[in-house]
Write a structure and sequence with these properties.
Shape: flat
Number of strands: 0
InterPro entries: Retrotrans_gag_dom
Helix content: 40-55%
Number of domains: 3
Protein name: Retrotransposon gag domain-containing protein
Structural class: mainly alpha
Distance between the termini: 172 Å
Organism: Cajanus cajan (Pigeon pea)
Pfam family, one: Retrotrans_gag
Number of helices: 14
Strand content: under 5%
Oligomer: single chain
Length: 336
């Protein structure tokens, strides 16, 4: 029998092409060849610090703690970089660990590459700029002792080892942020010549005074209340607000009293405010009592100007107010 010709590899079916691939690619870390093979101990993995990638976490502090644990548990005849490269992925969790899965395979070949990638991801340049600004503008808080202020300053500087600020400027920023009392004490301790000291001597003096502050001072010893412009303005604002509240209450009370006042009564016939329309004296006149409806109709149907003229000038008629007859200037008939 003759051999069948070879037509190449068999083509995969659609089902086979849609099936998941069980061959995984290598991780981003390419481990170097080891002179002395070693395996990470379970105790070392459990002692490693954990970094989750949260906003408030300090990646530089995590690296320091990681170095301490690994250098303590290092097996003999094993290079530290090899231990760091193998153990570091076990110190990451959550978002921080997911980063290792998204990098290209075998893109990291040394501990320096892994550390650089970690810092670039979780300590960007914008964070470095912000810390430099905080260092240059640091100020001693109210009620904060010299020791607490010095420790806070050192912690801020340690959070960014690559801040690239010289030792001279660091001490200058710290000295400028002191309150008046602490600055005077440092000037007195240095003999008024802190600027004549070297940076190392000035730091040693500050360290010594901060240590004394920790041992013999309490938090509230240096709390000096300084009344500034803001405090005075606050008192003035409070007084002004109280006066405005009193004025608002007064206006509200006057408005309420005005609403509660009864409307003045006005007669619809003679426009007098002394009586109501139904008891107007004009209705009591002769002729009016006999036909009050006609009289009222005549009054209401007459134009306002005509009513005013007749009531004002026709004093001899019976339609003007009878009360006017008793007025002294109008009693002319009795004077004859």
């Amino acid at each position: 029998m003759g051999e069948q010709p070879y037509n190449g590899p068999r083509e995969r079916t659609l089902r086979e092409m849609a099936a998941p691939d069980f061959t995984y690619e290598s991780l981003c870390i390419q481990y170097p060849e080891e002179d002395v093979p070693f395996v990470l101990k379970t105790g070392l993995i459990h002692l490693l610090p954990k970094f989750h990638g949260h906003a408030g976490e300090d990646p530089h502090k995590h690296l320091k703690e990681f170095h301490i644990v690994c250098s303590t548990m290092k097996p003999p005849d094993v290079q530290e970089d090899h231990i760091y490269l193998k153990a570091f992925p076990h110190s990451l969790e959550g978002v921080a660990k997911d980063l290792l899965y998204y990098l290209a395979p075998r893109s990291i070949t040394s501990w320096d590459d892994l550390k650089r990638m970690f810092l670039e991801k979780f300590f960007p340049a914008s964070r470095t700029t912000a810390i430099r600004k905080d260092i240059s503008g640091i100020r001693q808080l109210g009620g904060e002792t010299l020791y607490e202020y010095w420790e806070r300053f050192k912690k801020l500087c340690a959070s960014c080892p690559h801040h690239q600020v010289s030792e001279q400027l660091l001490l200058q920023y710290f000295y400028k942020g002191l309150n008046n009392m602490e600055r005077s004490m440092i000037d007195a301790a240095s003999g008024g010549a802190l600027g004549d000291m070297t940076p190392a001597e000035a730091r040693h003096l500050i360290e010594k005074m901060a240590s004394n502050s920790q041992q013999f001072s309490t938090r509230n010893d240096n709390a000096i209340v300084i009344r500034g412009v803001h405090d005075v303005a606050t008192d003035v604002d409070k007084k002004l607000e109280s006066k405005l509240d009193a004025l608002v209450n007064l206006v509200t009370q006057l408005a309420a009293n005005q609403k509660s006042t009864s409307v003045a009564r006005v007669c619809g016939i003679c426009s007098s405010i002394d009586h109501h329309t139904n008891v107007c004296p004009s209705l009591q006149q002769s002729g009016v009592n006999e036909h009050p409806e006609a009289y009222a109709a005549n009054i209401y149907n007459r134009p306002p100007v005509q009513q005013q003229q007749q009531q004002s000038y026709d004093l001899s008629s019976n339609r003007y107010n009878p009360g006017w007859r008793n007025y002294p200037n109008l009693r002319w008939s009795n004077q004859q």
